[in-house]
Prior knowledge:
The chain is α/β, with parallel strands linked by helices. Among the domains are: 167-311, Rossmann fold; 347-586 and 604-649, Dihydrodipicolinate Reductase, domain 2 (2-Layer Sandwich), CATH 3.30.360. The protein is built from 16 helices and 25 strands. The strands form six sheets. The chain has a nine-stranded mixed β-sheet with strand order 23-22-21-20-14-19-18-15-25, with helices on both faces. A seven-stranded mixed β-sheet has the order 10-9-8-11-12-13-24, sandwiched between helices. Helix 8 links the parallel strand 11 (274-281) and strand 12. Helix 9 (318-331) runs antiparallel to helix 15. It starts with 51 loop residues before the first helix and ends in a 12-residue tail after the last helix. The structure holds NADPH dihydro-nicotinamide-adenine-dinucleotide phosphate and ligand LXAUTJHC. NADPH dihydro-nicotinamide-adenine-dinucleotide phosphate binds at residues 175, 177-181, 208-210, 253, 282-285, 287, 311-313. It catalyses: D-glucose 6-phosphate + NADP(+) = 6-phospho-D-glucono-1,5-lactone + NADPH + H(+).
Amino acid sequence: MQITKLRKEENILSEIPKGLTNTPSMQSKSLSSSFKPTKPPLSLSHSHSQSPMAAIAASNAVVSKSTRLSSNYSFRPSSAPRNFHPWTSISLANSKISSGSGCVRAQVTPLEQTSAAAPAQSVEAPAVNVFGTSRGAVSTTVSPVENKTPLSKLKETAGFDGSGNESTVSITVVGASGDLAKKKIFPALFALFYEGFLPKHFTVYGYARSKMTDAELRIMVSKTLTCRIDQRENCGEKMEQFLGRCFYHSGQYDSEKNFAELDKKLKEHEVGRVSNRLFYLSIPPNIFIDAVKCASLSASSGNGWTRVIVEKPFGRDSESSAALTKALKQYLEEDQIFRIDHYLGKELVENLSVLRFSNLIFEPLWSRQYIRNVQLIFSEDFGTEGRGGYFDNYGIIRDIMQNHLLQILALFAMETPVSLDAEDIRNEKVKVLRSMRPVKLDDVVVGQYKSHTRGGINYPSYTDDETVPKGSLTPTFAAAALFIDNARWDGFLIDNSYFLLIFNFLFIFSRAEIRVQFRHVPGNLYNRNFGTDLDRATNELVIRVQPDEAIYLKINNKVPGLGMKLDRSNLNLHYAARYSKEIPDAYERLLLDAIEGERRLFIRSDELDAAWSLFTPFLKELEEKKIIPEYYPYGSRGPVGAHYLAARYKVRWGDVGHEQ
Ligand SMILES: NC(=O)C1=CN([C@@H]2O[C@H](COP(=O)(O)OP(=O)(O)OC[C@H]3O[C@@H](n4cnc5c(N)ncnc54)[C@H](OP(=O)(O)O)[C@@H]3O)[C@@H](O)[C@H]2O)C=CC1
Ligand SMILES: O=C1O[C@H](COP(=O)(O)O)[C@@H](O)[C@H](O)[C@H]1O
């Protein structure tokens, strides 16, 4: 059979679209609250007779209480690309705002109605005053600075084709009946819609084998729209509009005929406009290729771009990953493939580069000369919970370390890229991955949680989970020391700098942190104030990715008073206190990037190869030798071996408790 590739995106346009030369139309925007939604998920009866829209609207009545707020607020209009910024400053001084239970409501008067609006195409962003509304009000001024975006990109994402006609985006969630689609993808799409980030003409299609009508899909989607938005102003109305754009097509993943039917339905919505199509493969990996093949042959766009978001796992090792890439490339060009690692979409991971490259104080210290070790720490406070079938086949090293943690490491350790262009950044990430020593069995501790009784309660072991095979040796914990043999990070003077990755499944709490421990101050005049434990004086930069995002620096400080007592204090940037704007879910950022054709936060195939090369020999050895994991009690800090590993490299694990 002739293999056709999906159409490559067309992003060459000759003129600035008219829509971008005007001040964008204003929408009523609600201010975000920094506290978590408290409203329970929407629940709709599964009934054809009841309109989901009406039910949603009814369920969105919120008791209001008055809260005054004054602020300027910037947002990106629905038709504008993210990297371009007709930043429109909206004065909230005239806003009427009321807050309900955990809900801040704002009626926003656009700035153009109150004072001079910023020119629509200005590349200089105006200063924005942000007034914190809860948890420690902060009044300050920040100036959002965005990078210039190539003109072609602007036009591509603004929803116009080359002839000035408006284009459409059709987003098909393949595997729409599944866990990820319900939990993350539909809520993220709705949040984007609510915030005005989806293009004017868009359609969302659910595709899966399950039989469902459009109405049933809408009920399913509305039941799971429990995202950060559901406490906000006009949420019900917006949801109604969003659900009106959601449709469903039932089909097999390996049926070109079923995808051709989908194509026909998509065309009905695209009504002759330039059609851009995004497929999100939210299905088990064994059917990725079938689905890509059928989407490619039967449902790719005829006149716009076609992109495919591929979920992890991208194989189990170097060979299977290479085979997957090869198979995908039979149907797709590399720049149509968006391999998602949702950790790259997390706010503080994205901020890593800003922190490093736009603050003079950090970059000069960012090497083995000043940094002793870097710890990437990740833990979850829940077990496999029905995902044992998937998890047992992959284990914690493939599920978290080889991708999420390694990606963070690469961003952390890379050299300064030539620019913020996706290829420049990904080039640097590949270089750092290729400079790393392959992981050695000796440098890894693996563990598995065992049953444990505490306070009269019996907690199960990993293998007590019915979806896990009895006698499984799959690690639920891993700690590894990794080394980068390049000029910045190679062993130097006293000892090596290294990266320790630790993942602990079923820890006492869930968290993800980057902890950077600096070297001791040479000849520290105050050494005697720290007693024999100089580690107590180590400066430590902590980037708390989640929960309760924060960046803090541990410094030595004099305790006020007449004596000379030192303690360690934190210079603390606590996001909830500093920023009133809530943090979007990683999937929102990544979906928007895929729609905009921004590949920076997606993984390129050579990055993936490099990542697998580091872990594959070790994983094979682990499995061939049937290494027995160290057992550790459910809910504990993990096996004692991790502490021996740390001690071998003279590392003190960062604090494991919550700290400010
Ligand atoms: N769930 C999560 O939190 C995360 C998931 N992922 C990845 O995202 C993808 C989707 O995950 P998730 O939603 O949990 O997966 P699900 O197991 O829920 O599968 C999604 C859908 O695929 C169809 N499906 C399931 N098994 C098969 C099969 N054997 N053959 C054909 N179709 C099947 C089902 O739809 P139907 O029967 O209607 O066709 C199902 O609703 C996976 O690649 C996963 O690894 C990544 C990170 C986190
Ligand atoms: O990819 C995965 O990530 C989640 C953790 O993601 P988070 O955003 O909730 O921290 C993990 O639970 C899952 O096992 C894994 O496949």
